[in-house]
Structures are given as C-alpha cells and as structure tokens.
Amino acid sequence: MKKRFVIILSWAIALPLFAQTPVYLNPAAPIEDRVEDALQRMTREEKVAMLHAQSKFSAPGVPRLGIPENWMSDGPHGIRAEVLWDEWYGANWTNDSCIAFPALTALAASWNPDMAALYGKSIGEEARYRNKNVLLGPGVNIYRTPLNGRNFEYMGEDPYLAAQMVVPYIKEVQRNGVAACVKHFALNNQEIYRNHINVQVSARALHEIYLPAFKAAIQQGGAWAIMGAYNQYKNQHCCHNRYLLNDILKRDWGFDGVVVSDWGGVHNTEEAIANGLDMEFGTWTNGLNWGKSDVYNQYYLAQPYLELLKNGQAGEDVLNDKVRRILRLVFRTNMAPNRPYGSFGTQAHAETGRRIAEEGIVLLQNNRNVLPVDLSKVKNILVVGENAVKKMTTGGGSSSLKVKYEVSPLAGIQARVGSVAQVTYVKGYESPAEGEQDVKNAKKPEAKTIDAKALRAEAVNAAKSADVVLFIGGLNKNAGQDCEGDDRKTLDLPYAQNELIAALAKANPNMVVVIISGNAVAMPWAVQAPAIVEAWYNGTEAGNAIAAVLFGDVNPSGKLPFTFPARLQDNSAHAAGDYPGDGKNVTYHDDIFVGYRWLDKEKIKPLFAFGHGLSYTMFQYGEVSVNKSKITAAETITFTLSVKNTGTRDGAEVVQLYISDKKASLPRPVKELKGFKKVYLKAGETQTVSFTIDHAALSFYDDAKGAWITEPGAFEALVGASSADIKTDVAFEIKR
Ligand code: GLC
Question: Quick one: which of 14, 438, 538, 557 has the most CB atoms within 10 Å?
Fold first, then answer.
C-alpha cells in the first residue's frame, strides 16, 4: 500500500514538472515535435551558427537552450585522435588511442554482412565513448582505377557488393546514437585533381554503378548524414550540387538527414544555400587555402549567409529546413533517450578487428599447397620485407589513426611460431622515410640513400638456407601510395619489390608472397611465386590475423572486391585513356562497363578476378535449379543448389549469383552480381543454398526514360566461386 502511495505521490509531483518541460527537452516526445519546438525557440543568428564549423571537427549547438554541439570524427576504420581546435595537428591527449579496424576493402573482401554489422557496432561504440555524434564514414565510392589513392577506404568495384556491406555497418553504428556520414557523394573516384575535377558520366552509369551503394546507405541503412564530395558533376561542386543533393538525395530518395560538406568543399554561398548543403566544414577560409585561424564566421554558410537573410535575399524557409535536419541529428544522437555509453580501446574491439581481418584475407594462389605452413616440418622461417614491420595504421590521410597497439606481420608470425621454429627477419627492400602525419613541428626525416641491391642480396642469400620464405610487401600509406590526396602513378609495386620477389623465388621455391595493399598491383612474378595472399590493411590485429591464415589456424575465405588486372590498360578507366582527365574534366567513356563488367565485355583475362579467393579445402557445386522458368516482372524467382565441402578441413565459401540479360534494348554487361551467400561447411558437409531475386535484380536504368526498366525476355542465372569461375547456370524468362 505504502509503495503504491509513494508512486502516486511521485507522479503527482513529476507530472506538473513534465508539463512545464519544453517539448524539445522531453526525451519521450516524438523527434519531429522536439525539432519544431526547438526551431521556433531559436534566433536567426543561432540557426546560422549551427550550419558551419566552429573548429576543425565541431559545429555550435545552442547553449542558451541546452542544445549540444555537433562533434564529427574521422574515419571509416577507427576514431581519429583528438586534434587541436583549429589545426590538423594532434592534441596529444592521453586517452584517445583507439582500436584500428581493418580497412573497408578488407571488410568488403569478407563478403559477410554479419562482419559489417559487427564492424559498425564496434566502431560506433568507440565513437560514442569518445563523445563524437557523427562518424565520417563509411566510404563507398566505386573502385574505378587501381591507382586511386583512397580505394582502401572504400568497398570495391561492384555496386551490389558495396550496397550489401554498407547497410549493416551504418545500422549498427547508429544503434549507438552516433550518425554514420556515408561518403563521398558522389563520383569521387580519383584523388588527383579531386578538388575541382568535373566528372562527365552518363545518367545510366551514374544510376547503375556510382549511386546504388549510396542509395542503399540512405534508404536501407537509414544514414543520418552524408558527405558531399570535393569534385564536380554537371560543372557544379558536389557539396552544393542541385541535381545530386536536392533532386536525387532529398527529393527522390527522401533523405531527411544532414548533408555535410567535405572539408573545404564549399565554394559558393548562393549555391550552398539553394542546393541542399546543410553543414559546412573546412580549414580556415574557403577550406582549401591556408589562412589566418578562426575565420569560421567567414565561411560561406556563416556571415555571408546571415547578410543575405538580413537583406531579404535569402528566405527563412530554406534556413529552417537546414536547421530542422541538424536538430533531427541532435535528437537522434546527443539528446536521444536511452543512448548507450559506448566503449573504447577494448579487447572485444580488437577481437572484432581480428575476426574481420581473418575473414577478409584472400588466398589468391597456392600452388603445391605451400600454404598453410606446417610447423611440424618447418624449422627455419625467413621473413622478408619492409611491410612485415611497417606501421600501417598511421598515414594515408584523414583515415590515419593513433592506435592503442598494432601487431605487425612479423610480430604476429613470431608470436604464432614461438619456439617451435626459428624466425629470421631481413628487410629486403625499403621505402623513403615519410614525415609523421598530424604532428606539430614534426621533425623532417633525414634523407638517406637506400641501397636496394645490397638489401636484395642480403635477403636472397638468407633465403637459400630457409625452409620457407614469407615475403611481406605491397604498398603502404606513404604519399603517392595508398594515401588520400593523390594517386599512384603505376600499377607496379614500388621500391624494386618485383626484382626482389623474383630473386627470392629463384633462391627458394618454398616461398609465399603476402601483399599488404588497398589496391590491385601488377604481379610479373605470379608464375614463380607458388603462394600469393592479399592481406589488406588490417589494423590493430593485422599481424595475428595474417599469422593465423599463414599457419592454418584460420582457413582463408576472403574474396576479391575488385579485379586484379594483368596490365593497367586492361582496366576500363585506362583502356580508352580516360583517367585522370585533362585537369578540368574526366569522362567515363566506359560507362556502365567498370571492373569485371569491362573485362567480360572486352573478353580480357584478369590476373585475379573479382570475387576470386581460394581455401585450404575444396568445394563442389551442384547444378542450380529454378523454382519456375517463366515469371512476370512482378514476381520473384528462386535459384537453388547444393554446395559440398569435399576437403579435409572446415571452411567457408562465398557462393555468388550473377545475372545475365541475354537480350535487352540497351547494351548490358555479360553478367552482374545480384546475390551472394557465405556458407560455413564442415569437412564433408553439404548445404543447400538458395537465392530469391525480384525485378530489381533484372532491371536496368534507361537514360531516355529516366527510369529503371525490367524488360521481358531471356535471362540466365550463373552461380560460381568468382566472376570468372562459374560452376553452374540455368536459363529463365520474364514473360511479356
Ligand atoms: C578529408 C576527406 C574526408 C574527411 C575530411 C575530414 O579531406 O576527404 O573524407 O572525412 O576531410 O578529415
């Protein structure tokens, strides 16, 4: 009785308080009510202040109303260290050393949406704990050329794969009360000339290739923010592009979140106001030029906007729409009820990173079953290569991280081998020293001459007496390699690695090449190297994941998210000389034929195909069947087959479904990825795998009609272990 009395009494006291609590402060009130209530309490100055940066990574709230600031943080692979208020340099905090998760190419290479969900959950927890309510990632720009310095931050060459992998990442980030800010919208497919290059591409290729992952991020992932790209489309900067932001993103896709500029991506106040930009960030004045500090009030959406409002040249309605979106972001994040607290730098997150890395590592070649290394037979292991020891979590541009720790490949191998065998290390090759990134007054590294010949001779000599040679090379995060702001100049490996690998293979046939990179590289030595592994940038636990695969604790199951062409000119952006454009414009003459779509069309054999990846076991595919051979455009169709693990080890296989439209009114790719399933099979186990697709998987975008079309006619479903390894197929038809 007494308890009931107390409850009634407390409600009697609380209710009037609630009644006086402004709606926007009431966590139980619907978000839109909170938005409207807050909006009508704000002054014009407070509204404009919210639209632009006040520091490197923050924008003002409304202190008078208790509405907090919005804090952004890079990046897609981990939470960037705190930087100074108005400088890119690190603030040297002692509690911001994060867990670095694998690069997004590695996540895409897992072909496992569950890993994408786990990734989003974990990085969202780290962002939440660091009190950042907007994560500046993931990136989903399509891999168009293997030279793009930022491909490591993206999810490969196929829009369907990128779309399937980005949605769970975003959903799980946002479950932490942190907004994902998918980027860079759109057509940011090269770094050279990135701040102004005007991309000329057909509406068809835009809708079929370059937009689908963004559309999925918004419509299925429910992203609360999106970042405009630096480049131009239709001769208008993407950060204030009427067609991309107002027409496609906000009108057609129904985006209700915030459009954030890339840092310094804004160039015009009137366009920024009218064309859908909501928040402007940057560096000093117009973002791209070094200038005096603290000029945020001079930003395009700052004082200049206020002036236009005051003299009636800009309307309150557009301003209010921008502010509504930002308030919605605040009530979805900082002021959301029951927001979790996050966690940071935890062993659980390190384990997440390791699991994703292990699922993403791709076994490209394994002649004579050189892998896995059998420690019961091998007593003397030689590890060669700078990438066995080089830090890969720092550098690369805005995705650079200050990590709690990073296990190098050498350290991972040493930890795994222990005293069972002897591990010797020689550098073999060396890259020029790079200045430290984001460090104020960083000392310039002393220029030293690198004697590549001597390094190579030492390694080759050591290789002669080893039982197995593990070469760990590839690219790195140095400028001009896998690094933001520029592109590579060649498909070749740098630092004379090709000569070294060929010499090592000659000196010792028991040799494994591990490539650490975010891009395809040429492999003139692929015939001599019995085993080749693509090990990506795998973050904090990289070395342990690589060792687990090399020594067989983990059976590799990764598949390539982009093609490895044998030659640069086999790639669509280079075949016709499109890339990198003339400095003003770049034209995508390859249109929808990007990646494997191009090689299929031109009948070019890749070095390693999109979707390729081997296992330490074998899989056998049964014949695919179809539930009905004729469907209407409104019906679904289901394909079913059995897959058996015929080897002696448990393993996982990514079963891929491609659809081929045998006859269409417009040219179509030979086939396109429209389904995939990662199946885990014990040795000897058989599973039934099925795919159900609908018209969306059968349609194409018709520029002339400005719509997606599903045409009747003959189709084929092709199921395989990669785009170049089709195991079984079945015909079907869309009836008129
Ligand atoms: C950079 C990048 C963007 C990053 C932003 C903040 O220039 O293009 O991806 O999030 O600026 O560092």
Answer: 538
